[in-house]
Amino acid sequence: MAEPLIFERSVPGRRGYLLPPSDVPGFRADDIVPSDRLRTEPPPLPEIAEFDAIRHYTRLSQQNFSVDTHFYPLGSCTMKYNPKLNERIAALPGFAFLHPFQPAAQVQGMLALLYELEQLLCAITGMHAFTLQPAAGAQGELTGLKIIAAYHRRKGRRRSTILIPDSAHGTNPASAALSGFQVVQLVSGRDGLIDLNELKEKLTKDVAALMLTNPNTLGLFEREIKTIAAVLHEQDALIYMDGANMNALLGIARPGEMGVDLLQLNLHKTFSTPHGGGGPGAGPVGVVKRLEDFLPVPRVRKVGKRFRWEERSRASIGRVHGFYGNVGVLVRAYAYIRALGREGLMRANQAAIINANYLKAKLQPIFPVPFDDHCMHEFVVTLKALKTHGVTAGDVAKRLLDYGFYAPTVYFPLIVDEALMIEPTETESKETLDEFADALLAIEQEAKTKPDLVRQAPQRMIVERLDEVKAAREPNLRWKAGTFLFSPEGSTQRK
Ligand SMILES: *Cc1c(COP(=O)(O)O)cnc(C)c1O
What we know:
Helix content is 35%, strand content 12%. By secondary structure, the protein is an alpha/beta fold. Pyridoxal-5'-phosphate binds next to helix 6.
C-alpha cells in the first residue's frame, strides 16, 4: 500500500514533543524581527506525534532498494557491502564529536588518521601525495583539472584542450567543460580501448591532458596505458585517470606505475562507505611529485611526532571544500583499508573480477557482449536483439525490480546499443549471481512470449511505471487527488 504523505497524517493540535513551560522572560517576535518580515500565518507543517513520524519514515525507507536489502549490480558505481565495522569506528565519540575549529593540539588522533590515510592511498595507487578534500568523484575531477591548468600556467603557456575517450564516464567531459577546457573526443578502437593512431592524430600542441578511466566503462583495462602515457608526456601533456574503477586494480596494479600523473579515487565506492541518494562521498586526488605544490590547502603535515595543518602553499589552487572534506567518510575508508590490509584488498579485487567474469560467462550466450574480452570488475551487454519484440533495455531494467533485483546501469556507455552495464562486486555470493542470471534469462523469455508484461513493468512494486521525464519536469507529490500539492515554488497548498 502506498504510504500517505506525512501531511495527510496531520491532526490539528497534535504535537511530537511538549516542552516544559519556560521560566525565562520571553521576547515578542516583532521586537526583534521587522513586522513586514514576520509570518501572518503559521507554516503549513504536519502536526503529528513523534511515533507517527518514526513509522512514516521507517516505512518509506523499507520501500527502497538498498545494498543492505537487495543485490545492486549498478555498473560504474561499485555498490558493494559496507561493513558495519566502519560505521562503528566512524561513530566513536572521539571522531564523531570533534569540531573542525578545534586547535590541532586537541585533534592529534584525527590528524594522524588523515595523514595515514593519505599515506595508504599513496601506497595503493603509487602516487606521491593526496588531497582528501574533494567531496565526490566529480569534485575530484574538477580539482584535478584545476591542477592541470595550474601546471601549464606555471610553465607559462595556455592549453585549452582535454582529450576524452568516448568510453569515459559522463562526469569527465562535464568537469572538463566546467573548468573552461574544450573537450575533444577520442573514438575507441574496435576492441573498446584507446586507439593509438586516433590519439596521436588528435594530440595537438593545445592538449593539456588526456582524461581516461582505467579500467574503462566497458570494464576493459587499457593495455597500452604506458605507451599512451609516453605519447602524452612527449608533448608535456598530462594524463589524468578517473580512478572510480579502482575496485578492479586494488592490490594488483598501481596507476603511478602506469605513467598516470594524477587521479581521483571514489572512497564511497571502492573503499566501502555508504553512498547513493546524494549521501556524502569523498573523491581524494592523488598526484605525482611534480604536481604536489598545486594541491589544495590546508594539508596535514607531520613534524617530528606532531601533526599540524599547513594552511598556505604558494602554488596551491586553494580550497575546494569547507574545512577538511567529508571527514566521516574518510574515517570509514581508513577503517576499511586497515581491516582488510594489503592481502585483503587484493583478494577483494580478485573476487570482484572473478564474479564479473562468471556472470558475463553465464549471460553471454543470450546477451552478446559487444567489446568482448576478459573483463575487469564490470561488463556491458547489449539487449538490442529484444528490439524486434518492442522491448528495450529500460523495460528489462524495470522488470528486474519485480524479480527483486536493483537494475544495472542502462544506456551507458553510449557506444553500446541498448546497454546494460553490470558490476556484481566481490561481496556477492555465487548463489546471488546465479539467481540474478536466472532472472535475466527468464525476462528474456518473457520479452519474446509476453512482451507487454515486460513493457509494463514493474508490476509488483508500490508504484507502477513512472513517466520519468514528466516526474522531473512537473513534480507532483500528491498521492491522492485533491489533498496536497507541492507547487513549483515549493510551497504547500491545500486544494
Ligand atoms: C561514479 C563515477 C564518477 C563520479 O563520482 P561521483 O562521486 O558520483 O561524483 C566518475 N567516474 C566514474 C567512472 C564513476 O563511476
